[in-house]
């Protein structure tokens, strides 16, 4: 069995897969910034997004307008190849996000990478019979976590559940925000956490390095995300004797991986043996 099938890669979505916050993007693109800002001091973010969707619907904005806005979100050009490569190698990819299912699926489908992910854990986002997008909390009852998770979603709870549901798997977690701190603390010594440098999760982890058991590898942009993710997968593979081959091919700087397609899952990445770095 390939070692990559023992690897679960969990991605945050906003400012990790895409290079902006999808909630802010839609609000700004559809001209609801003022109403959003005026309500922000009085409402919890998740409830506010549902409320703003109601305002937009009342103004005649359709779900298609929202969809259109979502297809223009900024994304670093190396992120999609990084995701396709991890998937093609046999890793199990998941999204854990405080955005919502409608936004995430729309964007992933637009990028052609929806099928790379086996699961998406996020706030429900459904279009009601009137054509209005409704956004609900992921945790419908209080999760009781204060470290520091928003009331509608504790991502740490998701990671705890995955760790016990998938025994023997090694986890790689990528994120940028405050909500990515709690799941990072749940990871074990054998896991890897990839915080985005100079973003809130990185700040929190830098203040409390003793609380993080997983190995930490920081990244700054999509190019580094690709490099660090590939190296981390390779490192995990090199600890499985059967998969030294994949590892040595992956780690080479000569072998850029752009040519790996999802159909090439178990074919060699390069045609000549390459040195392995440790
Ligand atoms: Mg984020
Ligand atoms: Zn939490």
Automatic annotation (TrEMBL):
UniProt entry keywords in alphabetical sequence: Hydrolase, Magnesium, Metal-binding
Keyword tRNA-binding: no
Protein name, as recorded: Uncharacterized protein
SUPFAM superfamilies (alphabetical): HAD-like
Organism name: Kalanchoe fedtschenkoi (Lavender scallops)
InterPro entries, sorted: HAD-like_sf, HAD_hydro_PyrdxlP_Pase-like, HAD_sf, Pase_PHOSPHO-typ
Cofactor(s) this protein requires: Mg(2+)
Chain positions recorded as substrate binding sites: 23, 98
GO MF term list: metal ion binding; phosphatase activity
Active site positions, chain numbering: 12, 14
NCBIfam families: DKMTPPase-SF, HAD-SF-IB
Chain residues that bind Mg(2+): 12, 14, 176
């Amino acid at each position: 069995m390939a070692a990559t099938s023992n690897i679960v890669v969990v991605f945050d979505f906003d400012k990790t897969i895409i290079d902006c916050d999808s909630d802010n993007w839609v609000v700004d693109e559809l001209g609801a910034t003022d109403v959003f800002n005026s309500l922000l001091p009085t409402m919890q973010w998740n409830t506010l997004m549902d409320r703003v969707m109601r305002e937009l619907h009342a103004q005649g904005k359709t779900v298609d307008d929202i969809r259109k806005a979502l297809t223009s979100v900024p994304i670093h050009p190396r992120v999609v190849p990084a995701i396709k490569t991890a998937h093609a190698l046999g890793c199990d990819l998941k999204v854990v996000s405080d955005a919502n299912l409608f936004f995430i699926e729309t964007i992933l489908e637009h990028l052609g990478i929806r099928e790379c992910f086996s699961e998406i854990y996020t706030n429900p986002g459904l279009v009601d019979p009137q054509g209005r997008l409704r956004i609900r909390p992921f945790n419908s009852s209080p999760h009781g976590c204060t470290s520091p998770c928003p009331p509608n979603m504790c991502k740490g709870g998701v990671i705890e559940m995955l760790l016990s549901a998938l025994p023997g798997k090694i986890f790689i977690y990528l994120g940028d925000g405050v909500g990515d701190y709690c799941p990072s603390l749940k990871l074990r010594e054998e896991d890897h956490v990839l915080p985005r440098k100079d973003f809130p999760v990185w700040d929190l982890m830098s203040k409390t390095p003793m609380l993080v058991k997983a190995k930490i590898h920081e990244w700054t942009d999509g190019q580094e995300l690709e490099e660090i993710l590939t190296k981390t997968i390779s490192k995990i593979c090199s600890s499985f004797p059967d998969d030294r081959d994949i590892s040595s091919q992956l780690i080479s700087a000569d072998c850029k991986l752009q040519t790996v397609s999802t159909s090439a899952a178990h074919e060699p990445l390069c045609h000549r043996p390459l040195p392995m770095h440790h």
